[in-house]
Amino acid sequence: LSESYQPLGDIDLAFGEHIKYTNYKRYLDLESATVNVTYSVGEVLYSREHFSSNPHQVIATKISANKPGAVSCTVSLATPLDHRIRVTDAN
């Protein structure tokens, strides 16, 4: 098997209590390889920005909220490929 054309796998972002959300919006831009998601849980507005770069061989996600300390999640990756995961800023 060649890894050149294999899918990365499944990335799961588990946010626990984010079951009752409102104002969900998702934007996809194929030219810039970006996805933006916004939604509210109670008084907190959450934002997720996903982007990728083939030349840099990276997929990145920025998760933020309008309330300090509101972001808490578990990230997991299930893949058959060799890979490395790095957290650059745990805050």
From TrEMBL:
<protein>
    <recommendedName>
        <fullName>Glycosyl hydrolase family 95 N-terminal domain-containing protein</fullName>
    </recommendedName>
</protein>
<dbReference type="InterPro" id="IPR027414">
    <property type="entry name" value="GH95_N_dom"/>
</dbReference>
<feature type="domain" description="Glycosyl hydrolase family 95 N-terminal">
    <location>
        <begin position="3"/>
        <end position="84"/>
    </location>
</feature>
<dbReference type="Pfam" id="PF14498">
    <property type="entry name" value="Glyco_hyd_65N_2"/>
</dbReference>
<dbReference type="GO" id="GO:0004560">
    <property type="term" value="F:alpha-L-fucosidase activity"/>
</dbReference>
